[in-house]
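Study both lines:
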Amino acid sequence: MAGGQLTPEDMFDGLPVVRMPDAAYDIEQFFVVVYDGYISEGARRDIHTVVDFAVFAAWLRVGHKYHIQALALEAIRGFRSIFPMDLSTWTRYHFEFDGSFSHPRVRFETPQAIEAVNVIRQTCKVHLLPCALYTCAQLPRSVLFPGITRADGSLEMLSSADLQLCFEMKELLRATEPQIAVRWLTHAAAAKTCIERGDCTKEQKRMLMEVCRDLQENMRGDSLHGWDNSRRLYALGDEWAVCVFCGEAMAPGTDLG
């Protein structure tokens, strides 16, 4: 700028215009922080504020690129709410059987894990990568291959290397899923407070027979034709005639030993 003649297009209200290659959405979220003081020292925050994942991703990109440590740290806190360091914490929020995510402070749709993996790679925050890739591995191929549209309208796709990792994980998950379901059902028993003991025991046997029916075929871990019975089984919806007490006793997360 110092060595050239500025044109009218390079000026705004008498000041020079600096053109930045960043997405307008990312810079917009940065300015929101600057003017609203969200992360400034002593800033008052509403404990009920819910932040979109796209905002955290924008903060991480801008904070990393321009060495704004406070912004990057706030973004990492948001990422860790979604992608913690251990799967037991991950399960607390990624528990819905339709694949959705539930957290009191973060708004996140599971396909956004694709954007998460890319920004984690871009900013070298590899400690966030395992749970982000684990989330991607559970996305359908109809989402993994075409990618997703970011908040700024741009397309976000996984690299070929990360796609390969996801499908390797899918193969392991598909091969293991039926075995886990069998272990779960063989350990299940009518609850002590069961109000329909005979009917519940009979229904649990029917559930076990259904999962065993497809067990051999799915041991191959076919990542393109995922085995979905476990979602129906674990959901314990109206399809399965077990009483509410047995449903609670059989809920996912029970230690199977």
